[in-house]
Amino acid sequence: MNAKEDKELDDSVSSVMSSNSFRSVSTRKAKTTILNQKAYSQIYVSDVYQLITSKIGNYVRAQSLMVVIHSYPMGWKVQRLDIDFVQLRNYLIKKYPQVIIPPLPQVNQKKKLTKKQLYKKKVYYQKFLTSVMKSKVLRGCKFLIEFLQQ
Questions:
Q1: Quick check: is 8 in a domain?
Q2: What is the 8-class DSSP label of residue 33?
Q3: pTM of the shown model
Q4: Which of 108, 113, 129, 148 is the most exposed place for a label (fewest CB within 10 A)?
Q5: Is residue 87 part of a domain?
């Protein structure tokens, strides 16, 4: 900030402090995006499956989860790795510290998952995306839109 902006801020703060009445403060509106324009937009996790990239016998050395996401009414279908979700969450936390970002499920990298465990992961990812989509601020995030589109 330069000296002129500092002076203006000081003047506005002193006028608010000396005033006994409330006044309205203008705030920025959420960015208009395709997700904000369509209030009934829904994100649906249709499938979660395990990708085992390396194993010895029954021992899993490296694995990832693949999450299949559908976006309605846009008609987008995309597959994302669990690592992509971690990157999305970290980005949202840094970019929007004022918004509560839900946690992601833990993934045991050394274990083959059962169908029941994969279903639970699917539910976790669905809850994550549903709560992200509830925020008008987050729906305006270009990174989120690219995550759901490509």
A1: no
A2: -
A3: 0.72
A4: 108
A5: yes
What tokens appear for 76 in the block?
A: 């987008």
Q: How many domains, in total, are found in the chain?
A: 1
The identity of residue 15, as a single letter, is S
Q: What angle do CA 141, 48, 73 make, to 5 degrees?
A: 45
Give the DSSP H/E element, type plus range, for residue 48: strand 42-56
Choose among 86, 77, 89, 76: nearest CA to 107: 86
pLDDT, tens digit, 9 for 90 and up, residues 73-131:
888 899 999 999 999 999 999 999 999 999 998 876 667 788 999 999 999 999 999 99
Long-range contacts of the stretch 78-87 (C-beta < 8 A, 24+): 78/147, 78/148, 78/149, 78/150, 80/147, 81/51, 82/107, 84/147, 85/125, 85/128
